[in-house]
Amino acid sequence: MTRHRVAVLALDQAVTFDLGVPGQVFTSARDDQGQSHYSVRVCAPHPIRTTAGFTVTADHGLEALDDADTVLVPGVGRSSDPVERGFVAPEVAEALRKAYERKARIVSVCTGASVLAAAGLLDDRPAASHWAYADRLREHYPRVKWDFDALFRDDGDVLTSAGVAAGIDLCLHIVRSDQGSEVANRAARSCVVPAFRDGGQAQFIERPVPVTAGAGTARTREWVTGRLGETVALEEMAGHARMSVRTFTRRFREETGLSPARWLLQQRVAHARLLLESTDLPIDVVARRAGLGSASALRQHLHTAIGVSPSAYRRTFRLSTTQTSE
Q: Over the range 74-93, which residues count as b (16 or more CB within 10 Å of their CB) and which as e?
């Protein structure tokens, strides 16, 4: 099997969490025989300091970008301003532009988007980054169509994400797009993280953490995901969590950033996508098993989510899986 080559470009003051996530997620994306679909190389123009206070000497230099299928830039920090225009070294910007010109997929996490913007790769494109840097990024890079509400933005050959954990979501989204839901779900289980958070989901901006960990809605969410083919009313969810509907709804929004209804719909659509990718079930059966009721409802919700019909989605992923196995 030919593995997809990922080059993680570490720059001075790299955010250590962002630097470690790609290797963990991508190498966890394995086939049925346990072989990873990806090879991950960390590269840097020279030994770099991280935001955690230690120095990293990468195994590869900028030449690793020359044959990479995907180039990923983690977040970067600065004591004064991590998004200041012009801080990207000319040789780094040139290496990124060359990778882009030869059709490598370009990805950033958090303030790594400022590196892509400084290299001119985000002009007139939608892009995500951490909400805390919204004003400065807009000021320094006004040609970019910044979206500070989304967890990540997929613009085809250039993908960007918000900060910290959103980098995990973006990496899993890439695995899901490349290899399908089964592989992405296995990778998520290996990393002990949720398998799917839609990129359009809002970033968690200054939302309070529930005071009592045991009083949250996580167990109820787990209970609901095991019953996606059934009708589950809001009152039932609140009852399972032993809360009033009002308290449950408030806690649910605090913990997920979504209403229970929107969250449940996302889970149903995600499950339908998995069934379309991994089974030959008729479309109407997939719709029922995902709790969407009918084939027409599935078509509507899938088109709203990703802009394609169930049959087109199935064909796309079956073709992708066949090409990968070859």
A: bbbbeeeebbeeebbeeebb
Domains by residue range for the chain, with CATH = 4-191 (3.40.50.880), 212-326 (1.10.10.60)
| H or E element, residue 173 | helix 166-179
The residue among 100, 73, 98, 101 whose CA lies nearest residue 87 is 73
- Measured CA to CA, the distance from residue 115 to residue 84 in angstroms comes to 10
Give 237's contacts (C-beta < 8 A, 6+ positions apart). Answer: 217, 220, 224, 248, 260
Q: Dihedral of the CA atoms 159, 162, 163, 164 (nearest 10)?
A: -70
Select from 265, 324, 302, 300 the least CA-distant residue to 29: 324
Cβ-contact 121, 88 below 8 angstroms:
no
DSSP count for the chain of H helices, then E strands: 13, 10
Taking only the tens place, the pLDDT of each residue in 155-196 is: 999 999 998 889 999 999 999 889 988 888 889 888 887 665
Q: What is the pLDDT of residues 59-114, one digit of tens each?
A: 999 999 999 999 999 999 864 355 555 568 899 999 999 999 999 999 999 999 99
Cβ atoms within 10 Å of 59's Cβ, excluding its own: 9
